[in-house]
Amino acid sequence: MTRLQPLTLVDRMSLITLMVLTTATILMAAEAHAFCSVFCIHGDRTPETDICSGR
Known about the structure:
By secondary structure, the chain is mainly alpha-helical.
């Protein structure tokens, strides 16, 4: 039979760091999408900026 080894402290910290960075990336992308949807598509309240240049 094989025995699973528990994760070391460095492995756990690496996993936690990866999860935090992934979550932060997803949240920032969602916020940028929401900003562009509100200000670039619905109302044109701001002049063309870099985030809206593709629209």
